[in-house]
Amino acid sequence: MLTHGNLYAAIQLSRDMVSILLFSIIAVAAFNVVSSLVLVVMDKQGNIPILRTLGATGTDIAWIFVLQGAMIGLVGVVLGSIVGTLGSLAVPDIVSGLERLLGIRFLNTDVYPVSFLPVDLLASDILTVGGVALGMCVIAAIYPARRAAKMAPAMILNQDH
Q1: Against a cut of 0.90, is the pTM above it?
Q2: Domain total for the chain?
Q3: Is 20 domain-assigned?
Q4: Is 137 contained in some domain?
Q5: Contact criterion met (CB below 8 Å) for 81 and 121
Q6: Residue of 76, 46, 48 lying closest to 62 (CA atoms)
Q7: pLDDT (tens digit, 9 = 90+) per residue, 60-109?
Q8: 108-151: per-residue pLDDT in tens?
């Protein structure tokens, strides 16, 4: 820390920026969940009143769409975690392959204290990103779920004719 303190501070700053960018990307994905669930609600507009007339409450309808958002989020988190982990583990080999292919050293030891691309994959990072992504998907599903729960069965069935 005494000799390369500025380098460690710069690395920490870049880690913080990557975290902000990653959570911003997750927020955009959560917005996509909202828009797709709104479209599902519009598509299932004829089925919702049928469920209501069969005895389903507004809360039951809302839970259906919240669970659908959670399922979308869970599949995304699992697939994203697997692909992200495999991609992170492959980065050093990809970089060295590109260096050989292009004949360029990306990390020159005259400039950087390391000659390889270090990858430190932490389970806590994977769990944090996955948890935030899943949480955002569930929160994003609340708006379409509430919208579906508030639909009046008589008005919707009346619109069909």
Answers
A1: no
A2: 1
A3: no
A4: yes
A5: no
A6: 48
A7: 999 999 999 899 999 999 999 999 999 999 988 888 888 889 888 877 76
A8: 767 666 667 778 899 998 999 899 999 998 998 999 899 888 88
Is residue 156 in a domain? yes
Tokens of 140: 């994003």
Q: CA angle, corner 157, sides to 155 and 161, nearest 5?
A: 110
Residue 3 placed within a domain: no
Report DSSP letters for the chain, one per residue.
-TTTHHHHHHHHHHHHHHHHHHHHHHHHHHHHHHHHHHHHHHHTTTHHHHHHHTT--HHHHHHHHHHHHHHHHHHHHHHHHHHHHHHHHHHHHHHHHHHHHHT--SS-TTTSS-SS------HHHHHHHHHHHHHHHHHHHHHHHHHHHT--HHHHHHHH-
Domain housing 113: 27-160
